[in-house]
């Protein structure tokens, strides 16, 4: 299942961070000048004249700037950098084909430059059309705006002809434009054929268009659009699941632990991906205290389909905070069976239990395991909160696995420390600017009684064993310390399905946060409460069905799409030989 999931979502790795505006302009300028100098060296040899003529290629920079200005202006100058990058890619395509055309002209095919320039311009039209129609959602405007850069390339050829740079080549501007239109129509026909092919599996299995899904996905990547949530809701299921809260109080609230048994995915800002931030932000404003959101026992089947459903969680937490009795008596809990360990604490006969298999794999566990662990723990405690530390990149665990058996035995063999009436806790948090950490940043809780525990929580997708070990070994003076991650898929939009913590520059920041938490330690009372919510999630087995469909789709695309575009290029080249 893990291999299938990796294959299916590997395509998200094609999404990357766009270079800065300055870099894009610099690359475009350098490419334009290099092309001009190489062309002039081929045509006129190395001379002052060829150098001056080569400098004229600097006007190609306008083929990047002008469409960027017009396209971004239509959307009130949004996505400027993405438009600029598209223009640079279009320039690369044009220059590559034109240089190949130059080589053809040198071996006797005089019109090779013109033919390949037209084909490349048509490909650039297709590039802009895909970006404008699918990513920017320009709809019918895409057909017109996509012409800008290709037409500018033709004007560039005309400019070179006027200054004598293309003297051996005879061409008519109207004929070239006609050739361009014909070639574009061929490529649009190819694109339509591709759409028919890739839409078939998703329409058959889910009743939605794969093209529509890709448009919504691009919208999420570029601007955080949530249109995909509408499609998720079509096949969603309403489930009953748990929300637990541990609240710490002195005169006022000192802090809270919140554990919803949902999965923080699927990606970006969609569904539950930003729940750790949204929950903590709301509750911190309402109660004026730090809030740490942990990962409950749930996998991708329990992805909320809408970010707005965070209200359901928050409302239940607010209800739970009003219930129960606070206690200052705390006992710490520990158990280990093989590589599986459980650590936590008991307040008022209710347990907060966190589990891990680190340095062995500690990833998502089936929600059935979570319910089973809690059910077993209720034999020893009046309430139990189950937290997945999700702190060692590896395989997902399922009901009936060896991991499940070890965890069940760990629950059955939990040992309590002696109790203390002096419960103390300190919180601290740090926002970080990292591609591996989400909006909730780094949060730390220091819990003191007869033992001293340190919980370091990253709003991240997971961490590598080496990252965890280096951070833990740097924290001194505690009876227990471990790294937790929320499994937030907010950080997974660019890096594919996995984006674990590897950036060791975050370790000093985490250590500083620990020091701040130590300074904030105060006496307090605590209580543990659990409630039930009904929430719409992606649904059991929907992930598996989706993955199977995507794998079939990718298998087809790998073969059919290159073939269709090869046929389109060959057909356009043949037609161009007759349209003169």
Molecular structure report:
The chain is an alpha+beta fold. It has 2 domains: 2-221 and 548-578, no CATH class; 236-537, no CATH class. It has 19 helices and 14 strands. It has helices spanning 2-9, 21-44, 48-55, 62-74, 80-106, 112-135, 141-145, 148-162, 173-206, 210-223, 228-234, 275-287, 310-321, 367-377, 402-412, 465-474, 492-495, 506-519, 542-578, and strands at 237-249, 253-260, 291-293, 330-337, 340-347, 350-356, 383-388, 415-416, 424-430, 442-448, 452-458, 480-485, 522-523, 525-537. The protein has a 5-stranded mixed beta sheet with strand order 7-6-5-4-8, covered by helices on one side. Strand 6 (350-356), helix 14 and strand 7 (383-388) form a beta-alpha-beta unit. Helix 4 runs antiparallel to helix 8 (148-162). The longest helix is centred in the C-terminal third of the chain and has 37 residues, at 542-578. The protein is elongated, with a radius of gyration of 30 Å. Residues 1-14 have low confidence and may be disordered.
Q: Mean of residue pLDDT?
A: 82
Oligomer: single chain
* SS summary, helix count: 19
Distance between the termini: 56 Å
> How many beta strands in the DSSP annotation?
14
How would you classify the helix and strand content by structural class? alpha+beta
> Tell me, what's the shape?
elongated
Strand order of the largest sheet: 7-6-5-4-8
Rg, nearest Å: 30 Å
